[in-house]
Structures are given as C-alpha cells and as structure tokens.
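Lecture 7, part 2: worked example. A protein chain together with magnesium ion.
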Amino acid sequence: MDVRPDDLPDGLVIANGAGRVVCFNTAAVRLTGRQHHEALGSPLQAALPLEDLDGRRWWQLTDPYGGPAIRNGHPERNLLLPGGHEVLVAARYVRQRPRGPVERVVVTLRGTEARRRTERSHAELIATVAHELRSPLTSVKGFTATLLAKWERFTDDQKRLMLETVDADANRVTRLIAELLDISRIDSGRLEVRRQRLDIAAAVRRHVEGHIAAGQPAERFAPRIADGLPDLWADPDKIDQVLANLLENAVRHGEGTVTIEVEPAASPREPGEKATAVTVSDEGPGIPEESMSRVFTRFWRGSRRGGTGLGLYIVKGIVEAHGGVITVDRAPAGGARFRFILPVGAPAVLA
Ligand SMILES: Nc1ncnc2c1ncn2[C@@H]1O[C@H](COP(=O)(O)OP(=O)(O)OP(=O)(O)O)[C@@H](O)[C@H]1O
Ligand SMILES: [Mg+2]
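Predicted complex, written out as structure tokens:
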C-alpha cells in the first residue's frame, strides 16, 4: 500500500546521504512554519534548526553522519525550534549495512500541545484530590489531637461525638480512595467487567428496600419493571454501584417521587442485539440545561449538597465498560432523568 508522507499526522523530514532534505511533509510545514520549497534540497540543519533545552545546536551535537557508526538514531526528545517553539523529535539513522555510512536520516516531529494538556489535567486532578483528602484528615487530626491532650476534661458524650466525627471522616477518606482507584481503572481502560447472569429487577428492588430501611418513606420510590426483559449478563457489583449512585443522587439532589423504570430496549452498539434500559427520574430541581454536558465529568458538582462529584463519572465509566450508554435529560415532572442502556452481553458460548 502506498502511504504518502502528507497523510501522516506527525511531521516527517527525511535527509539523504549527503545531508540534504528530500522529504518535508505537510505536518512538518505546520509545526516548523517553514515552507516546503525552502526546506527541500537544503541541509538538514538549515531546514530543521533544532536546539536542545540548553541552546546547543542539535545536529552539530549529535552529528548523525559523522558520529560513531553504531548509532541508529535517537528516541523522542523535547527540542526547540527558533523562537523557542517546543517539538518532540525522534530520529533514525538508516544504514544499508551495519556500521556502514548513513544513507538517510528520518526525523519525526510532534507538537507538544496534547501532552501539555494531559499534563495539565493530571496536575489539576492531583490538586483536587489533595484538597478532597485534606479536609476530612484535618478534622481527624484535630479531634484525635484534642482527645489525646485533654482526655480527662471531656464527658463521655463529648468524646463519643468526637469519635463519631472521626469515624465518619475516616469513612469519607476510604470511600474517596475507593472512588479514585475506580477512576484510575476507568481512565486506563483496566476496569474489569465480570459478567454473570444478573436479575436487574431484583437489584433495583433491593436498592429501594435499602433506602426504605435507612429511613426514607416507602412512597418516595416507584419501581416499574416491564415484562419481557431479556436475560442480562453483567457485573453485579458494578451494576450495584451504578444503581446505588443514581438512586442516592435522586434522593439527595432530587425531590419527590423517585421513579425507576426497567424495560427492554434496543442495543446501542449492534442492531438486533437486545438490551435493558434503566431510567431513574425524580421531581426535584433537575440539572440546568447548560450543565448537562458536565455532570459526567469528574469532580463536577452542582448543588451545595454535592459530594465529591465523582459518582456520575464512575457510573458512566462502568456503563461504557459494559458496552452501554448513559444519558441525562429532564423528567416530565421537571426533575433529573438518567437513563442507561446495557446490551445483554451474553457470553459467546450462549449467544
Ligand atoms: N437527580 C439529580 N437532581 C439534581 N441534580 C443532580 C442529580 N444527580 C446529580 N446531580 C448533580 O450532579 C452533580 C454530580 O453528581 P455526582 O454523583 O457525580 O457527584 P455527587 O453526588 O456530588 O458526589 P458523589 O456521588 O461523588 O458523592 C451533583 O453534585 C448534583 O449537583
Ligand atoms: Mg453522587
């Protein structure tokens, strides 16, 4: 197959055995700002006047044509173009036979914006995580230090209250760390889905009962389970996490009746594949139109009652790891409506 240099997403510069540029593709033009016709035929060091971060001329320093004949290039480096413009540069010195003369120098160039962007988002993530961990830990530290220093001066009730706060804060930290581990698995594509036969209707009923047992009035929940649900194969623990999050959000951020509908649906990935849709809606204030695109991003929280804002990010990651989709819109009664669709995911032997 015939690949044209201009089709490559990265910059490509090739110099011949005499050190003259014979190829300078479109991406190289874009990254260097140097015109195609200026570059072609000129010496490599003139067409691509790179410097290292200490301001030394790169081609003089590395001397691809003159240096030791065992070298075959250099791995990706961060180098500078005139004007201090950063590029990631890798090179191969092509020799016809081992230790023979260099016949071609092939250089690839990449912009640094994408890497910068991920670096920045990592830095932001770390800052947020540090902040989220600090507030419960500050309280744990404060109460334990106080108790240790003045144990005799507090009544049993006061001590109990402080220990309860410490206990709750320790739980918060543990939960946050569990969520962060989920996030790192989601982000790196390592979230494992262990599929089993799953009775999602029973799972929904179990979650509703849990909320009622924890003190919510039974009228607050309206589970509606349709007939004819397909057999579903999914990871029970992970789907529990999804249901727990959506129901908790509806109870905590929403108001009124929480309706949970489970029904057969069309699969989002393959025509003809069966799927199950679960819709959780409430009658609260809902999510403002302009924020809907942001609810599934990490650390986004809308209201004062917000937690860490990781819940929906994890929910989306889990649903997508199952090959499903999740969407949000407004319920007829005005509140938020979340709907996720899971393809049946039957193991190949049964399909
Ligand atoms: N049913 C709902 N009604 C109104 N707002 C909601 C609803 N569900 C979620 N939200 C808004 O979306 C935000 C993000 O939800 P998410 O579950 O990701 O985080 P959280 O509930 O704040 O914290 P966490 O789930 O990590 O404890 C919430 O802070 C809330 O403002
Ligand atoms: Mg939540």
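Residues 196-343 form a domain with the Heat Shock Protein 90 fold (CATH 3.30.565.10). The two ends are 37 Å apart (CA to CA). Keep this in mind for problem set question 3.
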